[in-house]
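User: I'm preparing a small set of examples for a lab meeting where we compare how different chains pack in three dimensions. I only have the primary sequence for this one, and I'd like the structure in token form so I can line it up with the others. Please keep the answer compact; I'll paste it straight into my notes.
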Amino acid sequence: MHAKADEYRGGLAALSVNASLDEVLEQAERHDAAATTPVERAGALLAIAEACRRLGRVERAERAWRASYRTARDAGDQDAMAWALWSGGTLARQRGRYVLAHRLLTRAVAAAERGTDPMARGYALAGLAETGRVQGDFAGTLRLHEQLLAEAREVGQPRHVVWALEGIAQIHRHGGDYDTALAMFTEACQIATDSDDQRGRAWALRGVADLTSLRGEPDEALHLLADAERTCRDMRLEAALAYNHKMRGNVLYRAGRYAEAERVYRDTVEEFTRISEPRGEALARLGLVKSQARQGASPDQVDADLRDLHARFTESGLRHAADMAQAARRELLD
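Assistant: Understood. Below is the structure token output for the 334-residue chain.
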């Protein structure tokens, strides 16, 4: 099995899942300029949208996926419409617009079911599962994650196997079943390595590092994160890099290295702000407040900051993150 980047379509299908986003953007722009059919143009615009989304250039990503959708719609191409809607829904989730993400991804599933590309349906369903999971609906999305894992194994799609394993592992991790979570992240890492899916491997290493840290091995966890960071930098995976750094802050915090954690969290807040990723930015702020509290920050200020973060998470529909803010108040102030 070898990982394939299914979102790179038509003349861009030869691009590797490991292609740097700068290369993807450059080739997609060339294909867009040379496109002679609506299908070619929709595919090029989709790749532009995805490269820009992952680079944190969210305004251009928004324009590109909408243009891809309009081109596909005018041509009556349901498959291309589904891919564009998937891209738009994924971008909406990244920007913290979860209601819009659900709406666009649901439309993507419907378009894919009218079309002929099973991968478009799989990606759209995966997008719905991931949106629910990041909001904290673990019970509601576990079954869909498991269904998609079974389908991916059956047809031999290593990239989707890796994605589904990582999602299920996150659910088990948040439920406190660390052994199962570690086993699944480790399997995902091995499959990603064997199929040369460097992006999936970097995300899996982050999960393994998290569980390694929770087992009391911070130095090994930091080593794993450094390995994953090299891939993120080589491929220009800006969001993945920011989440990698946030996990570094988590590892340092758990190890009682609060001053180091504070510096990492502070820098990570800026990273997430730069790429318009409000969920990651708020989670990094939570780590920053906790690190400051451990170093003697005013309890009144800590309380105010945690109340503000709890309100932000609640208003955004991030139930699990809101619970984390409440847990931090109990841990630091009660």
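A couple of notes for your slides: DSSP finds 16 helices and no strands in the chain. Residues 226 and 244 are 9 Å apart (CA to CA).

User: Perfect, thanks.
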